[in-house]
Amino acid sequence: MRVLVTGAAGSMGRVVTVGLVDLGHDVVGLDLVPAPEGTTFTWHEADCADADAVAAVFAEERLDAVVHLAGVPEEVSLPDELTSHVVTTAALLDAMVAHDVPRLVYASSNHAVGRTPRADGELTEHVPPRPDTYYGVAKVAAEALMRLFAERHGIDAVACRIGSFLEEPTSTRALSTWLSHGDGVRMVEAALTAPAPGYAVLHGISANTRAWWDLEPGRRLGYEPQDDAEDHADRVEPGPDDEAEAEFVGGPFATAQFHRPA
Ligand code: 15L
Fold this sequence. Notes:
The chain is of the alpha/beta class.
C-alpha cells in the first residue's frame, strides 16, 4: 500500500514509518519539519491544517491510505487543539474524498473518554464521549468527523484510542495503559489492512497484565498485541499521584491540575 503518514517526524511517526516500510509498504511522510537524516522514503514538508497544502500533496501522490499521527500530544489552548486535531482531520478527509483514498487510520486518544471512571468496570469502545481536557474534546470531534465521512462517503476510518506510547512504561498508570513501539506498528498495520471496517474504534494498548481497556475491538480488526508492561514493572517506581491517576481512564489529564478556563 502507498500510505501517507502525517506527523512522520514525531515520536510515534518515527517508529510507525520505519515499521510500515519494514512491512513492505510504500510510505510517504508529511510533517512541518524536514525529513530526519537517513530517511529513505518520499517526504513532504507541509502543515496538514492547511487544506491547500494537503490538497497539493494528494494531487502529487497516488495514495491508498492515510495514517494521521500529526497533532499536539498534550493540553494547549482550545483553539490550538481544534486546529491541531479537527481542522487537520477535516483537510485530510476532504482530500481523501476528492482523490478516492479509501482508508484513514487515526491516532485518537484515551483522553476522548478520559473522564470515564475506573469504577465503571472494563472500558469498552461503546462508552459515550467523556473528554478529560480540551485535547480530549478535540479528539472526540475528530472521531465525529471520521464517522461522518465513513457514513457519508464510505471511507473506512479506524480511530485508535491510544494509551501511553512509550519505549517502556514509566509510571504505575502506564503499567495498564502502555502501548509498546512494536505493538504500535502492529496496531496501525491491522487498522490499515482489516477488511471493510467502516467506522471502528479500538484501544491502542499492549497486552498488559494490568489492562482494563477491552482488547477485543482491536482483535476483531486483526490487532494482536504481543507485549506486556508487566515485564518492565520492576523498573517502575510508585509515584505520589498513583491513586488519583487510577481513578479515571485519562489518569493525570482527569485530575484538577488540568482545569482551566476555555
Ligand atoms: C495521549 O493521548 C497523549 O498524547 C500523551 O501525551 C499521554 O498523555 C498519553 O495520552 C497517556 O494517556 O498516557
